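Re: the request from the purification team.
They wanted to know what the chain is likely to look like in 3D before they choose a buffer screen. I agreed to run a prediction and write the result into the notebook, where they can find it.
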Amino acid sequence: GPLAVVLAPVLGRAVRRSDTAAVPPGRSGGNPRMNRAVLATIAAAFVVFGTLALTSDPIDTVGYPEESVTWLEGQGLLAEPHRLAHQEFVGNYLTLRFGDQARVFVDDRFDMYPLALSQDYRTLLDGGPATIEILERREIDVVLWWRQLPLAQILRSAGWQEVFGEKDYVVLQR
């Protein structure tokens, strides 16, 4: 919408015939050749962007654990009786992918969660000493986490098994 408003004067000048158009006093009709070049450039941009919009995936999921979530879904680990812990942006991805059927531990709406859950999440994120106790208290038996954060190493050393992994993520199960 706003692009059309901005481009209207340029397009108007580009398609106007300079030999019959009335030019207001003090204004030049411009260079018809330049006006056509601008119009051609704008048209080419519309073709390129339109083609990209129609041929590419409308949502960029690079950086999200797509393979891990697909694996978890295939193994039935996203459904009851399992409880999954994950990082907040993974919660956003789960909501995007599964809609209101997603069972999310935490996402970026921190103000909507009880303070105790936010504090527990922060401890898990930092790899604090209460990590194992938090997972037990919340009855979490599956964790999808970024493999470089301390939680992955803490869980391995506590006997959790790495059941799936991809480049940046690891799935650990009790």
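For the purification team: DSSP finds seven helices and four strands in the chain.
Please add any questions underneath this entry.
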